[in-house]
Request: fold
Amino acid sequence: MVVTTVGFSTLAKLTGKSGGIADLRIAEYPGPLGVHDAAQIARNVEAALIQQIVDGLTGAGVNAGAATTARRGPRDIVFTGSAEEVSRHFNEKEWSDGLPVIAPTIERVEAFLKFTDRAADEPVAVLPSANLQATPWNVAVNAVMAGCRPEHMPVLVAAVEALGDERCSLNNIGSSSGIFPYVLVNGPVADELGIQRGPQLVSRGPNPAIGRAVGLIIRNIAGFRPGASYMGTFGYPLGITLAEHEDDHSPWPPFHVEAGFDRTASTVTVGVTNNWGSSPAPYDTPDKNVAQTALEILCREILKKTRLFNFPARGPDAEKVMITLLLSPPVAKSLATAGYSKADVKRYIFENARMRLADFDWVLKYTAIMRTTARRQVEAGVLPPEFAGAPDDMVKVLSGPDVLHIVVCGDPHRNRVMVMEGGHTQPTTKPVRLPAGWSERSKA
Amino acid sequence: MEKLLVVSPLGFEAVKAIGGAPRLDDLDGKTVGEFWNGVFKGDMTFPAIRGLLQKRFPRLMIVPFTEFPHAHGSDHPSKQREHAQRMATLAREKGCDAVISGNGA
Reply:
């Protein structure tokens, strides 16, 4: 039998089912284990876990070989309605990513199938974690929904083959660290389909639709459902599609040539990324409580950011700086229990996000547009005198606590934080003015 | 308004259900192994579980997680399968009637 923490039992159940075990026995620990100390863990094990374990080890199971779901035909109609009703239904069933979908009618799916030589029901891959069968048919259904064009099918079928390859280890992407896929297209097919490889590539041309289709395939065929088996604490943006410069813009052999393919071949590579941000997990440990660990992690995360050169900016001509801290509820509660208000957290980070002056000088010299030094900035009256100190002096990298903004959000059962850096703008808040009769209107 | 007839985006069933192992009639006199994946504070939960189970079932034998390799590590599916098979073999060799595996989070 399996011990999980709250929020992860569905994942355990689905993992069991994907291996053919419909009656996996699960005992669920209550609350975010990571932030609990030894005494609280002992209390929770006794109060909530132990009986579940005894019951799970000794209770009656279901029959081996019992069917778990009814068989469904690919052409079975699952819903009838207007375009808006289809989108709403698909979102309610969690078959979509929250955006409207193009209704996958049989005619639209068949139009996509004309762009593959495979039979509609030919196995393409069995995709973990649900271990469901991908075929050209259901790949096409998801591609229609995402807003792809029929001619994108060869790219998507190749992407599904990549997802099903054991080297891809797709079964690992449910992690609460929030991994999501990217698709890299190489070779002549990228230009033939107009897949963007230049400025703003991830948000132009067919790139967003292809990325979205792969995200829907991961949801609907691989079975990664947010909150059930796709556990990123702060969720996921749309999938990213890239194409690589393979002409004079790149001095090196392209990715697919490095992977052993001929330069004239067209390939699709599927990878994963943690961007839009890594989300480290502060734990309670014997030598440091979770609040202190969280504060130190936040300071260290800030020191990793690429806009670091801009963080101490001062004066009327300084670029604006904004750093938004996402704290999951267990982390926020641990900080509050330790006596920290939001203002206290900001103040702590302002005081303690420090680095060696010599390292900060390197950041200014080699990563900032102005290619300056701390000493020159002090002489210009931009930075305070401590930035003209000795190389080993530890300087504060933030201009003040007011550049920090805290939002408590994400999975209430996970102890994670994320630091989102930004600049050129400041958070700007306006009231939402509801129209008269809002309650009635919003229910309609 | 046009009514659209739509099909399902879901994958097709590809795994045959095999059911789980038969459950024990009683824990008294049995042997239970602990599989720890090396993370999520199993070093705190397993001793607590062990102590409570042995208090309740004095003749229950428990093979602690220290007797097994950690069940966490390789991201490669075939290595994960090999590891699972090795763990199962080891549990049988140690006379386990059942195992508790954790912690999932």
Observations:
- Chain A has three domains: 2-58, 83-273, 290-423.
- The CA atoms of residues 319 and 424 of chain A lie 6 Å apart.
